[in-house]
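The data layer described in this paper is built around a simple, fixed record for each protein. Such a record has a labelled line for the sequence and another for the backbone structure tokens. For reference, a complete record is included directly beneath this paragraph.
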Amino acid sequence: MNSTNESATAQAPRRRTIDIVNRGLKRRYRAERRFRFYGLAAIVLSLAFLALLFVSIVAKGYSAFWQTHIRLAVFFDPEVIRQDTLVNADYAALVRESFFKKFPQADGRQDRRQLAALVSSGAVYQLRDMVLKDPELIGKTVEAWLPADDDVDMLIKGHFRRDLPESERRVSDKQIAWIERLEAEGRLERKFNTVFLSAGDSREPELAGIWGAVSGSFFTLVITLSLSFPIGVASAVYLEEFAKKNRWTDLIEVNINNLAAVPSIVFGLLGLAVFLNFFGLPRSAPLVGGLVLTLMTLPTIIIASRSALKSVPPSIREAALGVGASKMQMVVHHVLPLALPGMLTGTIIGMARALGESAPLLMIGMVAFIVDIPKGVSDPATVLPVQIYLWSDSPERAFVERTSAAIMVLLAFLVVMNAGAILLRKKFERRW
């Protein structure tokens, strides 16, 4: 009887301990489930906001790839266009005369000014190019599709409400009446906006394009890639394969890791002080932009290249040295080819980061208003992120859709570059 009581007394604390442990386990399991739920909710919320951002950009920008055009019967008057003044002829007068014939009731000076404002100022250059291409048009009447003004374009696309009071919109009641008549007669049509993809910047939204910025980005990235890839790979190979481990190499490694985290605008200040003020290189040129972005991307490429070299098994090095190869031959013929896919991946990621940078380029003057398409690395140019920054600060409603459309193009380039990095890694990566 006594032994039974003693056994029950001994088991009681043990049961209490197990109960305490079980209750603690239940709390931890509940806490773990809450943690998983919060983590999953945070991921879903982040993806939802990201999707909302993309949808907002696309919704605002897709219409920029279409431009409203007006079809007019243009009479190339020989009295206005003479053979000796084909370039400098008053083509705007031809546009005005075509409108006045179409709407003879617009007899007042203000009415005629509003009527002529329906067509973009770039229409005169289109007519000039038509005459320069075919001088036989002089004296003939031709049906020409001319780009509409940005306010008309916004009205047709639904960005301006027609039912608002006249004082609250940029298009008058008379202009709306003329536009509706042109629509009824089939003289208003939306066409693919080739100007947006083939022209440089402009003060007029309907004439503004991204090709100048794309060309500037291309030349800048060519300079960046030409300098940063060989220098970055050579530095990584030296530090990983040849340099002795001492204070100096430790200091270099620490500085490389620190430079990878330096804000990009600091590199812009360095480029302003060194490349522009000291060396006197041309301002707002892809050459200087490429040099600045080279400094910015070098740490990223060096770190990625060193990681790729470390991933090569030591047995590869030992086997190459064992058959009589020198250390240089071992690195060049055996280690470097195996590490190259990882190096290329890091380089492409660095180039993608450089493509999206604007802060360092603002410091070296690439924020200038550039109309002409750059032909080389020393011509004045801007880049796509800076072009987006300039357009976002413009007050016209038409620049809002062009800003979003330029963001779509930039995102497309970034997605292609990152996808290329992933494909390279998947195709050439070797698992050991």
The CA atoms of residues 152 and 158 lie 10 Å apart.
